[in-house]
Amino acid sequence: MDYVLNLFLIVITAIFVNNIVLAQFLGICPFLGVSKKIETASGMGLAVTAVLVVATLVTFIIQKYVLDVFGLGYLQTIVFILVIASLVQMIEIVLKHSMPSLYQALGVFLPLITTNCCILGVAILVIQKDYDLLQALIFSTSTAAGFWLAMVVFAGLREQMSLIETPKAMRGVPLALITAGLLAMAFMGFSGVDMGLRTFLGL
Amino acid sequence: MKKLQSSFTNMVIVMTVVAVVAGGVLAWVNKVTAPQIEKINAENLSKGIFAVMGSDNVQVSEAKEVGDYVFYLVADKTGKPVGTAVTTQAQGFGGTLEILVGFDLEGTILGYTILSSAETPGLGAKANTWFQKGQKGDIVGKNPGTCNFTVSKDGGEIDAITASTITSRAFLGAIKKAYDELYGDKKPLSEP
Amino acid sequence: MSKFKIILNGIVKENPTFVLLLGMCPTLGTTSSAINGLAMGLATMFVLMLSNLIISCLKNLIPDMVRIPSYIIIIASLVTMLQMLMQAYLPGIYTTLGLFIPLIVVNCIILGRAEAFAAKNSPLDSLCDGMGIGIGFSLALTLLGAVREILGTGVVFRSEDFGMSGITLQGENYGMLMFVLAPGAFLALGYLIALFNKFVIKK
């Protein structure tokens, strides 16, 4: 029972308390780059979700059954990044042939994802936190959900912001960063919720 | 020199050579640095144990890992047990604080130190001095089992770090939990 | 172009943080103090200079189609080397920077410079370019870290890892913690870029 409650806690923490973008600063590039419109932001969020979950599972299995077994822990970074890069390619090819409509929606984002640090970051975090397979799955899914949420909310704010007159030097990235700062402040309101829940659930 | 063509053989050869060289270099660097890393970790641990037990004349007689905690049974040079040092973790503000805390045989806190903090540096650094002996939030000499070991905001005896109640709560909570593991109802160390 | 000009170019005209807006994740994630920012900048510079040098030397030996994967392997090995060296000789700062050290692999600056500069220029020029961009990145991170540290804690250049007590500018009880925490990173960087736009680029 404690195990299930712990999973629930992982979900809440990953989405709200330690939001991957707003609290951990991973995946900032797409967060600033493709957040001008809600639709594209949402598309990027979904593409990241797909890659993040698959990549975490594959890297997890490689770490546990190859790197750990042969004592090759020091190859972690190099192996993980290669796995992620080839996975992105594979997902792209598979989507192109089997689900053309989905490919049209997500395709443009896929090449950008290899250098999205939240994928590699989560893959390494899962190993560092010593999660088991189910926890890794839940953690990566909810982290991705947190990413999607931040993307969509942020894009909504930026859509509104684009309608107002701003000083020239502030246009574009500076204003986006300041908006992100305010959003991060809002998300700070969640800090401590995880501990409260932990106490509440008696963990 | 002319650029190599992207023929299949060229590509395979180049990739293989690059990968093998990279792997080889890494294996070598790993071999060179591994002993040093181990040495530093061991040094840090023994330094930490000395600091939290308040004495340099002690040694770890046994280490036990139970769940998230690592217990180090500490004895003096003659082998007489003097207490236990425990590593415990606090979920602070956007990161984890790893704390090493030393208890004497009755469970009174002898000292603590922060082993690593992925926390906001300002806060982790503050926690490292704030609760030390003679500081505002002094916890040294207190026994979590007999005193009200929470921040004053929650009705406890300990002053929280200014403007960092969450970190302070997490910090004290982690120590209390380590105490409970060690001296509470479930005594993992007394069982075989 | 003279070597000096190449270096200067990386510091001002193509400043990775303020102009190219690359490598935002470590920029935001590690600048909670000036020294941390500086350390991250120097770590990145180490990888950037070596990767530029090696890739430039090998540019004719690597066929175009496997260019990117080869670059990634080279960069990832350099990062892993850095990781091991830091762990062995600078353990304190290694723990502080944490996840962001392996994530240098996916820092777009490094792959970007490999593609845009090292693949086309001589090894020595590439080394200079890596140095210039590296210095530009380090300066930007130190500046951002200093601003956040001063506003957040009232002290600057304080570092536990190097045993530096820093320069105290405000009383002991001063503190706008928000600037050390996540929102402050976004806000401070947003305003810094706006100022850079206004006074250096003169937008």
Number of domains of chain C: 1
* Strand portion of chain A: under 5%
Gross morphology of chain C = globular
Count interface residues per chain for the largest interface. A-C, 44 and 42 residues
Number of domains of chain A: 1
Strand order of the largest sheet of chain C: 1-2
Average predicted local confidence, pLDDT of chain C = 88
Instruction: Give the distance, in angstroms, between the N- and C-terminal Cα atoms of chain A.
Output: 10 Å
Rg over CA atoms of chain A:
18 Å
Describe the structure.
The complex is a heterotrimer of chains A (203), B (192) and C (203). Chain A is mainly α. Chain A has one domain. In chain A, 76% of the residues lie in helices and 0% in strands. Chain A is globular and about 60 Å long. In chain B, strands 1-2-3-4-5 form a 5-stranded antiparallel sheet. Chain B has one domain. Chain B is α+β, with helices and mostly antiparallel strands and 192 residues long. Helix content of chain C is 65%, strand content 2%. In chain C, strands 1-2 form a two-stranded antiparallel sheet. By secondary structure, chain C is mostly helical. Chains in contact: A-B, A-C, B-C.
Break the fold down into its secondary structure elements and pairings.
The complex is a heterotrimer of chains A (203), B (192) and C (203).
Chain A: H1 2-17, H2 28-33, H3 38-70, H4 76-98, H5 100-106, H6 110-113, H7 117-128, H8 133-161, H9 173-188, H10 193-201
Helix pairs in contact in A: 1-8, 1-10, 3-4, 3-7, 3-8, 4-5, 4-7
Chain B: H1 8-53, E1 58-66, E2 69-76, E3 81-92, E4 95-104, E5 109-117, H2 121-130, H3 165-183
Antiparallel strand pairs in B: 1-2, 2-3, 3-4, 4-5
Chain C: H1 3-11, H2 24-29, H3 34-58, H4 67-89, H5 91-97, H6 108-118, H7 123-153, E1 155-156, E2 167-168, H8 182-201
Antiparallel strand pairs in C: 1-2
Helix pairs in contact in C: 1-7, 3-4, 3-6, 3-7, 4-5, 7-8
Question: What's this entry about, in short?
Answer:
Chain A has helices at residues 2-17, 28-33, 38-70, 76-98, 100-106, 110-113, 117-128, 133-161, 173-188, 193-201. Chain A is mostly helical.
